[in-house]
Amino acid sequence: MDHNLGTLTPCVVALIAHDDLRAVLLSNPGLAGTLWRDSLIDAAHYRERITSLGRRQALGRVAHLFCELYLRQKAVGLARGLSCPLVPKQSELADALGLTSVHLNRVLRTLRGRGLVTLSGGLLTIEDWDALAEVAEFDQTFLHLANNSIPAREAAEAV
């Protein structure tokens, strides 16, 4: 492989030999199609990350990542209202966003100061989805999630 994988939380990882995977895919065209679709979605995520790192200023990068993290966690039932766990440490977020920890800290202060997010005890709360999404230039279609409802409406209905 030309890269490494790491996890931020405990995970179970299984290795499947290429020959075994090929045999399963040849006998299950539906599974092959699903893996192909998953590869296309991964490519969309990579394109979005490259765009974010290459074109967005730090504030937009962080806002974009927060919107994405929230929607991904919402899709698997980990978000409540407009809050979700924020597992990565500040240094890990900075690395993922191509920022120094000091610069990330300033950006987080700005997001808090504008009333867009609250960070407390490993929990991210989006205080103003529309404003955060605007700062992020966020378009959630690249995530290919089945549930495309607007989070701000859901939060208002939950109150």
Automatic annotation (TrEMBL):
InterPro entries: HTH_CRP, RmlC-like_jellyroll, WH_DNA-bd_sf. Pfam families: HTH_Crp_2. SUPFAM superfamilies: Winged helix' DNA-binding domain. Residues 56-130 form the HTH crp-type domain. This is CRP-like cAMP-binding protein. It comes from Methylobacterium radiotolerans.
